[in-house]
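Comment thread on ticket #2218

A.B. wrote:
> Attaching the input chain for the structure job we discussed in standup.
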Amino acid sequence: MPFKDKEYNRIYQREWARRHRIHKPRIKTGEMTQCLVCKKEFYRFRTHIKKGIKFLCSSKCHGIRRSKLLKDGVLAVSKNFKNTGKTRFKKGVYAGEKHYNWKGGITPTNAKIRNSVEYRNWRESVFARDNWTCQKCGKRGGELNADHIKPFCLYPELRLDITNGCTLCRECHFRTDTFSNRAKNYGKTNFISVGLQESVRP
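C.D. wrote:
> Ran it. Output below, let me know if you need it in another format.
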């Protein structure tokens, strides 16, 4: 008799089926076949026998047989295929103005600099100089930020200067007076950071 609770009924039926399940041994209907390339015996399923496929034991043997057939001329190479020994596309061929989705260079300068290789190298250099340690709390590793001592937006000439970088953890970086939009008020005499009076830089 089924229980009123549907969830309990489903669990009970699943448990009953698990306990009373009869494990029938799987009957193998295939046969052992010899590989055409390496002469190794492997099991061939009944479906493969019916379809007349799977005469090779592995993809490695398949590649060897295919290359041999191409060499003997049994298989034809596609007419559009030209083996020049070089890659099809060279780096930079469809970059910039040559790309089909080019929109006249609308990427902001900030995004260009922060995603550049030079900026990534600058970050790694700052981390390596400070031994991947926060210069305020002394925490080593974790989520580290490379902070600009003089703001990124106000001093473009110092953006990639290693002496203008400082390794800080995420919490200490958030408490600086130049974090995010606070950098706009950097250097102003009437600028008072609420709760940020203590500088976090060394």
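A.B. wrote:
> Thanks. Noting for the ticket: Strands lie at 31-34, 41-44, 144-148, 165-169.
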